[in-house]
UniProtKB/TrEMBL annotation:
Keywords: Glycoprotein, Hydrolase, Protease, Serine protease, Signal
PROSITE patterns, per the entry: SUBTILASE, SUBTILASE_ASP, SUBTILASE_SER
Subcellular location: Secreted
Signal peptide: 1-25
The protein, known as: Subtilisin-like protease
A Pfam cross-reference name: fn3_6
Catalytic residues of the enzyme: D195, H272, S636
One GO molecular-function entry: serine-type endopeptidase activity
Amino acid sequence: MRRVLMMNFGVFLLFCFGFLSNSFGQDNGGSDINSTTSVYIVTLRQAPTLHLLQQEEEVKRVNAKHLQGSKHGDTSKFTRPNLQPRNISKSRYWRSRRSAISQAHDSLLRNALKGEKYIKLYSFHYLINGFAVFVSSQQAEKLSVRREVANIVLDFSVRTATTYTPQFMGLPEGAWVKEGGFEIAGEGVVIGFIDTGIDPNHPSFNDNVINSQHSYPTPKHFSGVCEVTPDFPSGSCNKKLIGARHFAQSAITRGVFNSSEDYASPFDGDGHGTHTASIAAGNHGVPVIVSNYNFGNASGIAPRAHISVYKALYKSFGGFAADVVAAIDQAAQDGVDILSLSITPNQKPPGVATFFNPIDMAILSAVKAGIFVVQAAGNTGPSPKSMSSFSPWIFTVGASSHDRVYSNSLTLGNNVTIPGVGFAIPTDDGKMYKMISAFHALNNSTSSDKDTYVGECQDYENFSQVLVSGNLLMCSYSVRFVLGLATIKQALDVAKNLSAAGVVFYMDPYVVGFQINPTPMDMPGIIIPSAEDSKSLLKYYNSSLQRDVSTKEIVGFGAVAAIEGGLKANFSNRAPKVMYYSARGPDPQDNSFNNADVLKPNLIAPGNSIWGAWSSASTDSTEFEGEKFAMMSGTSMAAPHVAGVAALIKQAFPQFSPSAIASALSTTALLDDNKGGPILAQRTYVNPDQDLYTATPFDMGSGFVNATAALNPGLVFDTGFEDYMSFLCGINGSDLVVFNYTGVSCSAKNATISGFDLNLPSITVSMLNGTQTFQRSMRNIAGNETYNVGWSPPYGVSMKVSPAQFSIAMGETQVFSVTLTATKNSSSSSFGRIGLFGNTGHIVNIPVSVIEKIASS
């Protein structure tokens, strides 16, 4: 008997280091459904529409090939089938099939739950054949024993986790030039975003800035629509924003949806979705004006690409997997080319392997449909095995720095200068101001014993204007600021009301491991993010207090300082660096933290201190409330950078499969920083730049995204759906779960493979016992070329690559073998690299990672 699989692990959207939540939505309070009701995702045995359509396409292709062969003789050239049916949702066949599938779902529910009450939330048609339903655990058990049902999974919660980066990535002189200029970069490509929605009124998404000399039609292969609601009225979409939907049935059924705050529409009430969409595909040349200061002009990575939004996450509660799966299914039906997600589990999915969860398996079908899927790695670094994106068919992106820094500083009266952050004007040039701590500026009716939060400067009535006026007010930046219970904006308002000359925020020692982004300030101000620097400031301040000799009471304030201001950027920093919060490999294969033979992350991209568009309704970050742009950090910001580059690749190579796009991104990645040294990684979250080491593939994957080179990779590694199925069937104990998710019987597979046998542009071996040989196959998409092969083995391993040289014509395929032999016993990861150097300039980079090594005796 099949049993209901209770997979109640939470997931969250990676946004500004959001706190993890494992809470579940409320049950429906209906009297006819008992207290154990919840939402379940039910997968049926019958194949989804995508798989049936592809089978029909394959039959047509084989018949056509047979007919051609009978007329002209057989041909040796293999014609690749088109794996992504286009405009399917507009066809009469599709509409009738969709209706038939939905009716079949209804019939199954009626027959299984005779006379009982239930709520069907979604029918999934395209990527998976199934539905989401609100039922009791007893009803779920009844469904699980039906012969039509393959799998039942308990729905789980999800939660929400540039002006310069195009230049740092070399786009204006490189990739954009190759595409014909920024005016057409990404043209004809649709990027789908599963996120918190979008603000359609933002100038980053309007279409009146498009060069009138070029037409800007909706791509013919796209069939999505725009919802019309009171807060997303007709006309919200245009030639740029061509699709917008929202998915919230699971949340509504649970009673956690707040329509006034969450918006029952594609409109973004959070800000995160607007931000990520603008990074990937926002218009070129949009002025970034924050607090009335112009920080330059913004551009997306693929500014001519189209945007389609699938809102499945919400400000007040996050979201639920059933809504996310429905969003993925719809995006694939609509015909998006690229899909960008920042959704990851907050703990490893239970079961046979981390790859088997509803979201990853829906994405596998999306990849089969020809959609390239980008996912954020997670903000859970820097510990090993902190990776939160697992599957080899998903392109996982970690976060790096770039070389732009907005520096602010505080110069003390003892000639010590303390670095800080804050978009603030300076104090008067050449003038020092007295500093006064909030604890020493209280009025007679306020006591720090009664108000433990008085140091945060949140209440004007606590302070004496006589003491503060004309001085720098010192406020404590506590954990409450991180939680949103106290705000910079409120402290600035208090300081202005007290006629302070400026505000200095020093770090509470309990605030560790949080990224403090520069914050807009409408008066002189600074945040000192280092606890050590904050101690130095307080030591100077306390030593400068003037006290009565007998009473020891404070009678004067001797500490003085000047705020230098933080509006000007400098571009001298060493970059990129892997940020401390970026999740690290090795890729955990299961909940027991066994290692997978798959490299994660795949790549790093700019994710720290990124300007992006901001929703007009967002109150998520009070410091940017009411602004059109905000600066955010996280792997959520890194992923859309790569989604944008993927759009440029898709534009240049429309027939590229998802694996070919992934290969182009990976093999061309940069290994060195802007100073010519190896890319470094931050090791700790306390003073991260003081503890750096050379980044490994488990920190940065293949390296830092190189947009220009990715448009001319030379060789590509192809991997298809059948390869992934052979990999999944090769996992011990996976036969039943593979069948339940895909309807494919592993017993029908002639052979299974391990992760290191997948034709990926990397080799990752969790355990090397003696000697093993691996093969990779590459296809030449450039002209005829001769390659020399070089390699450096991982420590404790000998390596041989064959052939050491080869010539390959355009369109041909070359196979090479890599033999690894463990020479030392070790459980420590070590890393090597294979380089293919073409005589016309192509360089193909293949990282090699070996974790445990057992030498032959």
